[in-house]
Amino acid sequence: MQFPDSYGRGKLPVRDKIMMIAVFGPTAVGKSRVAVEVAERLQGEIVSADSMQVYRGIPLLTDQPSPELRARIKHHLVATVSLSEEYSVARYVREAHKALADIHRRGRLPLVVGGTGLYLQALLGRFSFAGRADEGTRAKWERFLREEGLEAAYGELCRLDARAAALVDRDNPRRLVRALEAAESRGASIAAERDRLWAGPESIAGGIVISGLEKERGELYGAIDARVDGMLASGAIDEVREARRGPVSRTAAQSIGFTELSDFLDGRLSLDAAAAAIKQRSRRYAKRQLTWMRKMPDIARIDLSGSSTRAAAQTIIELFESLGMNGR
Cα-flanking dihedrals φ and ψ of residue 6, to 5°? Predict the structure, then answer.
């Protein structure tokens, strides 16, 4: 396990805020099971920090915690939003704050668990919802994307802001356009903005232990491939088929696998090709999640390679207790 310098001083910056644990990590690393183990032993409840697990109707596609895990521990912000609804980080913060206050009021310990770095940053840091680009800049890059395609737009972002290009979801047109807006309009890289928002104790909520789960790259990619294969074998194709019977919002359709399985259902891809595309896209996403994690201050990185869920949970609990945070 790797500790940041602030842990060596024996405490995190603690203020008059809700005490909690955050569990972050890439897709398929095993966050859900570790978090449930911790929650059971510390009388906690889980608040999801995943931009796609909020949607109902696609539990396999979004790798929502299993019914067995949800029966063991109460989960918040999982399967709470219709597929027809747009969802945003601002809405997430409002709903997560409400859930955290409710858990705290009932004397339970909140665990914020997920792999959407932007959501965790917004919930715990100083994320600003202001500073949108002017409409002309947005229209310019939307037109460029339509006419030139994703790869060309990503190439432009690499040219304008290489650090932002390493973080952005290159398969997500909306986020790609926003990154290009930032690079041109504000003259402020999304990577630099991310660093500013995470920088220093003032960006971290008081009374929180942040743990980051990771695995050796080959083991993680093997877990991703196994998850995709299991998802397909368990009925993800039927999930997408059923979802397409009704309206699907732009944000819901960005779930990894939705486009690929839609292409399969429409005859544009074979099932093998769709599965390969989902695996590749998932690996790219995992790399971006790891990049986010390594930039977070005050994070204890826990290597799950060859380790057990129970051992990882014990490490988090010991860290929590060693910082004198078990007297909530």
Answer: -65, -30
Residue-wise burial string across 242-271, b where 16 or more C-beta atoms lie within 10 A, e elsewhere: ebbeeebeebbebbbbbbbbbebeeeebee
Q: Say if residue 14 is in the same domain as residue 61.
A: yes
Residue type, 234: S
Same-domain check for residues 113 and 151: no
pTM (2 d.p.) = 0.76
Range of the domain at 185: 135-193
Q: Tokens 């945003």 correspond to what residue?
A: 88
Q: The tokens of 189 are what?
A: 């890289």
Q: How far apart are CA 80 and CA 65, in angstroms?
A: 13
The verdict on residue 41 lying in a domain is: yes
Domain count, the chain: 2
Q: Would you say residue 327 lies in a domain?
A: no
Mean pLDDT within 185-210: 52
Q: What is the CATH number of the domain that holds 14?
A: 3.40.50.300
Look-up: residue for tokens 């770095």? 117
Q: For residues 157 and 175, is the Cβ–Cβ distance under 8 A?
A: no
Coil, strand, or helix at residue 46? strand
**pLDDT tens-digit profile of 22-66?**
999 999 999 999 999 999 999 999 999 999 999 999 999 999 999
Residue 273 is assigned to a structural domain of this protein = yes
The structure tokens listed for 259 are 């486009």
Q: How far apart are CA 214 and CA 31, in angstroms?
A: 9
- The structure tokens listed for 242 are 């059923």
Q: Are both 218 and 77 inside the same structural domain?
A: yes
Instruction: Tell me the pLDDT tens digit for each residue of 313-326.
Output: 999 999 888 766 55
Are 208 and 297 in a shared domain?
Answer: yes
Residue type, 298: D
Q: Dig out the tokens for 45 from the structure.
A: 């409840």
What's the rounded Cα separation, in Å, for the pair 124 and 89? 12
